[in-house]
Amino acid sequence: MQSTQLLETLNSVKRLDSLLTEEFEALKNQNLEFFEALQAEKLKILEVLAGLDFIGEKLDQAATQDLLNNPIWNEITSLLERCKRSHQRNELLISKQLDSIRGALSALQDQDPSATLELYTKLGKTRATRRSILSGDA
After folding, report:
1. Which range has the worst mean pLDDT, 68-82, 91-105, 121-135?
2. pLDDT band at 94, cuts 50/70/90?
3. Residue 57 confidence (pLDDT) above 90
4. Whether the predicted pLDDT of 137 surpasses 50
5. Has residue 1 got a pLDDT over 60?
6. Smallest Cα–Cα separation from 94: which of 23, 43, 42, 16?
7. How confident is the model at residue 12 (pLDDT cuts 50, 70, 90)?
8. Of the candidates 25, 34, 14, 123, which has an alpha carbon nearest to the alpha carbon of residue 76?
9. Which CATH superfamily is domain 3-109 in?
10. Average pLDDT, the chain
């Protein structure tokens, strides 16, 4: 593998890492316009990375070992691991926000009086409470 290809890959992975951080901040601040604007660039980078064909080069054992020992390759793989964790963090944040929205909508619509809501105790722990207790029906 050529070092220019490795450097281009490294730059793409660094930008992806940066985009995922920006994405998290946009989600955290509920800035959906900025979040959506990041998606086009993120998709473009992911397509470039998906198109890389390291295996297709049919590297011999020595070339493969050289690649594995290359510090640029090691940085790429560690950054990709960090990107994976960042993506999972962003996915979790989106899920939590959606759950909160669904819970708020359900409470406002009062769809199921026997449903439970998660409330926080004084210690900041969640505690499931029956809706009837909250609504005064008990």
Report:
1. 121-135
2. very high
3. no
4. no
5. no
6. 23
7. very high
8. 14
9. FlgN-like (1.20.58.300)
10. 82
Sign of the dihedral through C-alpha 59, 61, 65, 68: positive
**16: Cβ contacts below 8 Å, ≥ 6 apart:** 42, 45, 46, 49, 79, 83
Task: Show the 3-state SS of the chain.
Answer: CCHHHHHHHHHHHHHHHHHHHHHHHHHHCCCHHHHHHHHHHHHHHHHHHHCCCCHHHCCCHHHHHHHHHCHHHHHHHHHHHHHHHHHHHHHHHHHHHHHHHHHHHHHHHCCCCCCEEEEECCCCCEEEEEHHHHHCCC
Q: Domain locations in the chain?
A: 3-109
* pTM (two decimals): 0.70
Please work out, in degrees rounded to the nearest 5, the angle formed at the alpha carbon of residue 83 by the alpha carbons of 73 and 39: 120
Query: How far, in Å, are 3, 49, 54, 73, 90 from residue 44 at the CA level?
Result: 22, 9, 19, 21, 19
